[in-house]
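This entry is passed on directly below:
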Amino acid sequence: MKQIYLKDFMTVAISDLQDAGRYGTAHVHRSVLRSILEYAGNKLAMSKMTPAFLKEYENYLIMQKKLEWNTSSTYMRCLQAVYNQALDRGMVPFIPRQFSGVFRGALRNHRRALSPSDMRRLLSNRESAKNTTQITNVSNLPKENTTETELSDRKKTKSAIDKSTSKARACLELMLRLRGLSFVDLAFLRKSDFHEGYLILRRHKTGTPLRIRVSEDTLKLLRQNVSQDPHSPYLLNILDGRLTGYEAYQDYQSKLRHLNTWLKNLAKSRKVQSRVSSYCARHTWATQAKYCGIPTSVISEGLGHASVTTTEAYLKAFDNGVLDRANETVVDYILLPKKKK
């Protein structure tokens, strides 16, 4: 059997993904390829991807590169899919239990779910007094050291900061109100997706159909952020409607990076200690739905997940106080005599 190098095979696979318009998957493949070549070198033969090698690579990702387990799992699933493609073509040998020794599941990511109080603090329109003073109170600066041009530039900077913060806050609230909609699905909403008070779309990641009722408050927020370009196919003023293909994907990635930067700044200004990113609305919606007693199966369908297992990775575990009270309720119900009516 001819020796097949991982770099050569994955380079072709990445090109095929690009041609098929699967830019996100191609991006993951590129990240995985860079990582494993950094670890093992350019001449890594696919036949050398034994269980022992994969375990050592996993240890490298976790211990040296300090990746999260879920990120390492993504890398391993990608490598498994690539190896299976080569196996189906008869290009590599079958290796029994090849990936059985590495983690390929999903751990609950507690840090992405915010408390209701933190979410309300982020979505409040009021800026903290301290932050406002630091940014806007330019009249207190020594006039002899500050030119009119500098004052004008600072006002423009403040205006840009206010506009970006407002847009980031609007995106966060829309994602929360629309059943924890992911940012990619929010950004790519099309004008044609809105029908008689509902958004009807398919998830970018899985193709799962979603039908989300738009409340009056949500509709107001949508109108405030609607695209002003009559030629743009997009509903909101997030993406450049003139771009297509890979350029559109790059535009989305750029807007995602900007959103996460401004959400981080917003969290800092509102004194929210938890890490805040575009994922927070989705994880917060799912976790608080669980706390409200909504069945996991309903949460899963609401998020558009293909599997309840995926949903369970989103859900933050109940704290000990909630579990203790639940235990007392169950034990009392079983052991205490019932009062006669």
Remarks:
- The chain has two domains: 6-88, 111-321.
- The mean pLDDT is 88.
- The CA atoms of residues 165 and 332 lie 50 Å apart.
